[in-house]
């Protein structure tokens, strides 16, 4: 190898804690001019946190960030940007109603006396976009641009700030294959100009193509660092997983081998899931694995009548039609959303109002029976071990774990026979996770059919009798029994093994 | 270890938020009591039966409408059209009543048909607002700003720029609905009280009220909780329309006419009363009894200024404005705590 340039931006033994929880345990990472360094890991491995530490969005709790070899502390992302370090968010940070040129110079407008020098900014914006092979009219509002054009505006914005380091958070997640190709060409060009690029993606094949160097994180720790030429998608996948199984999970008990309680066939949610078919028996825990954005949540929301859908759903062998969440609940289905704060709980309201919101008709004829509600709350607090200092206080003040237990109690209050749990342990501590695993296990023991969507491999493996793997809105595999391994799941989730194969335990 | 951690944040906020919440609840009540005491000290006629009846009866139109507005605002909506709607309903009701005189004569039967027509028209007007907002997916502000103009313009057109007057003899029959009463209490006050009590029960004790608050608080949570969000919204605008109808039924016998100035700016008074009463303008929390207090506060200010020469009655609007802004400042204090 030729001699490499000295790193522009480095993380040296960086640690980061949120409250008492440490999420980065001393990570080393460096970016060199003219190179693309890919950062890979599962969800929750600490990629985003590391990126935010590098770009001034979050201060480090330990270790240091070094710029040109000198330790620095960025007070804000603005300060990092002034030093030429720019993070491009996955969800773009553009003012939709403003023109492309206004966005490119947002906060750094060029002035002539008192007035904005539009002429200059327009010329410069056009030049930048032309260099990026995106010759759009810079006067057009950003809202009228396509997703890839918006991304190029983001990059142009970064370049207008003389970026030396570009941090790209899953830039291709929202792009079509053709749009991604344009992006890769531009990345090559930026490399040639000496820009250092940090690149993250869940698409490992893409990383092999784009990156010069690959660093793998797992559970907030540094796992490996290799030149891209010495690693491949399989190797990366192995590094990403390979966690030991602990005794977090209750012993699985065999499902009652009965006729399926739920059969879904040829089910589609336009734009998210295509031709999905699966079966679910009473007492069974069925996992849905895949990457974020694989369409699992949208599929379940479709089944619950929360999204437009088509296809057949059968309950106990009978065709049913679900047009609204109310229909779904009527047919014995209940869904726990992954978005606890945005879709699950009314954060300003107390425990009682939240608990009974889904099953309120069970507590009311003409008037809501508050006594019965209070009793139900007592029962739920007992059963799900919800710890709250005040029952009347807003649930927004509860810890994530207690919120989740309350949400689970709310979901179970309609006594569903089919329970769909979407990321049931997201953002909660390990102790509560274990409790929730126990609840899920008990639900199955009671003879309910349970679906668990999870992006945590260990959870899927530890809890589920069978696992369906999805990728890009389609089922890419189904595993059961001993065939459920992290590697098998990751390979299917990443699309390395795409033919659906039925394995019998 | 983790559980101890989990418990500490709510414990902290409980001690902190409780006193502020109380101030927020009692603020409007204290303001009302202060106004009453102030009024008593300025004029000994203030608490006379005549004056009290006058204040209450005149507040009842805005009050009945404001109870509906409490629900609309609680679901996170807004209805700017209520004042114009009331004028429009008054105009149509008068036309219907006059048209029925030849066939049904001067009788209560005619009046009752007129009342039913007024209610039905109110429901339809509310339905129109609601359907445009829910099915048409147009912002409530825009829809009701539009219908505000439409209703107002229609009544002016119906009156041909002048005044629509109720048949004189029929008016004599209808008169007691506003001027009469039972046990010395005027009918408008009784109806207002009934509407307020039923409204308070609906808000506080029924599934509908809970759903309305949930929708205003976070309509996604409501949707994911199997609440038929759009239907509840539609029903709420219809409820508002119907209550405008009720208020109009009480209003028509008062003057026996409808013109371009009927119900002018009622929507703003209703919204002001709702906000003063502690309902959150962004939705998610409504308090019907608070609205009643808000209505009373606004009428009392008007009344006190008219009874005394302390401040020019022309400054009424300015004082009401200050009170509205103060009420919102208090509301913000509560949000900070939550």
Automatic annotation (TrEMBL), chain A:
Signal sequence segment: none
Gene3D superfamilies, alphabetized: P-loop containing nucleotide triphosphate hydrolases
Its keywords, alphabetically, are:
ATP-binding, Cell membrane, Membrane, Nucleotide-binding, Repeat, Sugar transport, Translocase, Transport
The record's annotation in Pfam families points to: ABC_tran
A GO CC annotation recorded here is: plasma membrane
Q: Which GO terms describe its molecular function?
A: ATP binding; ATP hydrolysis activity
Q: List residues of the ABC transporter domain.
A: 9-244, 257-497
Where is the protein situated, by its record's location annotation? Answer: Cell membrane
The way this protein sits in the membrane is described as: Peripheral membrane protein
List the InterPro entries. AAA+_ATPase, ABC_carbohydrate_import_ATPase, ABC_transporter-like_ATP-bd, ABC_transporter-like_CS, P-loop_NTPase
Major place of residence: membrane
In the record, the note on similarity to other proteins reads: Belongs to the ABC transporter superfamily.
Record's PANTHER family?
Answer: CARBOHYDRATE TRANSPORT ATP-BINDING PROTEIN MG119-RELATED (PTHR43790), GALACTOFURANOSE TRANSPORTER ATP-BINDING PROTEIN YTFR (PTHR43790:SF9)
Instruction: From the Swiss-Prot or TrEMBL record, give the protein name.
Output: ABC sugar transporter, ATPase subunit
Native species: Fulvimarina pelagi HTCC2506
UniProtKB/TrEMBL annotation, chain B:
Q: Which CDD domains does the record cross-reference, listed alphabetically?
A: TM_PBP1_transp_AraH_like (cd06579)
> Which Pfam families does UniProt cross-reference here?
BPD_transp_2
User: Is Zinc one of the keywords UniProt gives this record?
Assistant: no
What transmembrane ranges does the database entry give? 21-43, 55-75, 82-100, 106-128, 140-158, 178-198, 234-252, 264-281, 288-305, 311-330
Q: Provide the alphabetized UniProt keywords.
A: Cell membrane, Membrane, Transmembrane, Transmembrane helix
InterPro entries reported in the protein's UniProt record: ABC_transp_permease
Q: What is one cellular component GO term in this UniProt entry?
A: plasma membrane
Q: What is its main location?
A: membrane
* Record membrane topology: Multi-pass membrane protein
Localization, per the record, is: Cell membrane
Highest taxon of the lineage: Bacteria
Q: Mind telling me which PANTHER family this protein's record contains? A: ABC TRANSPORTER PERMEASE PROTEIN YPHD-RELATED-RELATED, RIBOSE IMPORT PERMEASE PROTEIN RBSC
Name of the protein in question: ABC sugar (Ribose) transporter, inner membrane subunit
**Native source organism of the sequence:** Fulvimarina pelagi HTCC2506
